[in-house]
Amino acid sequence: MKLRSILSVFALSLFLVVSVAAQNETFSDPNVEYTFDLPDAAWKMTSKPSTLSPNVEYVFKDRNDGYMEVRKLSIKSNQMLGDIIRDEETKLQFMPGYVAGKEENFQGALDGRVFNFEFVRSARNMSGRFYFLKAKDDTVYVLRFTGERDKLRNIRNQVDSIARTFKVK
Length: 169
Hints:
Layout: H1 2-21, E1 25-28, E2 34-38, E3 43-47, E4 56-60, E5 67-74, H2 81-92, E6 99-106, E7 112-121, E8 124-136, E9 139-148, H3 149-154, H4 156-165, E10 167-168
Antiparallel strand pairs: 1-2, 2-10, 3-4, 4-5, 5-9, 6-7, 7-8, 8-9
């Protein structure tokens, strides 16, 4: 009987430790109109938004492991996400070793599309995963994730989680 209660207390305390450790940090700033959850404490802010520049940037451990930037795009109210992705892709085509990947539909707090691609930087195989999330008829947020191909693939669940929790205040 004592062993059973000791095991129950141990299991409960282990559950509490795991749930406290699994809590996400939420990004929110008065200079921007969006929030998102960071699933791991390894994500560190490298560029804080201000009144002059509403962009935010984060790095996962090292810039090559994972880099994220958030940009707000103003669009025409009838403009399709596919057209916005094509515009972005024309800028990416000049990267060394650029290879376009596939587009996917994406569902989260804001729905949109994901565009994947690969490129080369400093003789390293890199990849990018850009989330185009439509907030309003005239506003799209782009979450741009880049990193070494294998490292970004390893944190894809975190990248997807950040995009899934991205929402306008």
